[in-house]
Amino acid sequence: MSPQRRRVAVTIHPFRPEALQAATEFVLGCNARGITCAASSDDAARLAAVAPQADLIVLEHSDPELMVVFGGDGNILRAAEWAVPRQVPVLGVNLGHIGFLAELESSQVPTLIGTVADRGYQVEQRITIDTVVRDHPGGEVLWSSFAINEVSIEKLARERMLEVLVRVDDRALSRWATDGVLVSTPTGSTAYAFSAHGPVIWPDLSALLLVPLSAHALFARPLVLSDHSVVAIEVLPGGSPGGVVWCDGRRTFDIGPGMEVEARLGAHRLLLARTSEQPFVDRLVRKFDLPVDGWRAAADRARRDAH
């Protein structure tokens, strides 16, 4: 009996022609090395239209060793909805903007083919958040999901703030009138939480980040919490008539006064495939295009030019 061919999944940005082009090159290159590729029915149809000779199977019937994502971080988050529960590593090829989760650029597809064929990648683990919505504190669970970047609780009405009571480990922390609250992973600390002036947390640190959004309060600072902590956010009457919970800006549930949103360390990890050992500080500088020398170097140059 011949051994089963290796299988690698691909997912493609739905609106970028360059993503389809890069994915087609990758699929055909993998096929030439004896690897079958799996894709969703929509992505498989797009690939088959431009490469009818491709060896493709439907994702739902596959058991891939790796999922390669052609798109930006948003596409990686979408792919993770399938990959995280199955603990399949994800490798991102960036066709978006910053692409913090992505490993390679589309011009590096030939290198990627060889790396995948040789299994020349390492797998990095990132924590996730599990969240539930209850009808009241400690009550019946109405909805549950998980997040890779963050769970956000946001107001629905522009003219009214949310009134919330935040508890950590069953202890009241603070009551806020606020536009919302984020509970973020270290991975998410360079996403929504970063825009809300939260700190950047190194991704190999196992911790949770609690960030109020424009809270009207004397104490409304971002807090870094233990990964054992459980955050509970109760929506109080008297503020906005309702709010909404978002997980990674993709999965959502409406909430109202009296309900409670609970967030804790997730049961599953995001497995990110990396093709090289790159210190996070290098990635931070490169992705944000940070001017390492900043204005001090400009001042030094001005002084030298003056002399």
Automatic annotation (TrEMBL):
GO terms for molecular function: ATP binding; metal ion binding; NAD binding; NAD+ kinase activity. Keywords: ATP-binding, Cytoplasm, Kinase, NAD, NADP, Nucleotide-binding, Transferase. It is found in: Cytoplasm. NAD(+) binds at residues 73-74, 78, 149-150, 160, 179, 190-195. GO terms for biological process: NAD+ metabolic process; NADP+ biosynthetic process. The keyword rRNA processing does not apply. Its main location: cytoplasm. Its EC number is 2.7.1.23. Its cofactor is a divalent metal cation. It catalyses: NAD(+) + ATP = ADP + NADP(+) + H(+). The active site is at residue 73. Gene3D superfamilies: Probable inorganic polyphosphate/atp-NAD kinase, domain 1 (3.40.50.10330), Probable inorganic polyphosphate/atp-NAD kinase, domain 2 (2.60.200.30). It comes from the Bacteria. GO terms for cellular component: cytoplasm. InterPro entries: ATP-NAD_kinase_N, ATP-NAD_kinase_PpnK-typ_C, NAD/diacylglycerol_kinase_sf, NADK. HAMAP family: NAD_kinase. Involved in the regulation of the intracellular balance of NAD and NADP, and is a key enzyme in the biosynthesis of NADP. Catalyzes specifically the phosphorylation on 2'-hydroxyl of the adenosine moiety of NAD to yield NADP. Belongs to the NAD kinase family. NCBIfam families: PRK03372.1 (NF002892). This is NAD kinase. It comes from Propionicimonas paludicola.
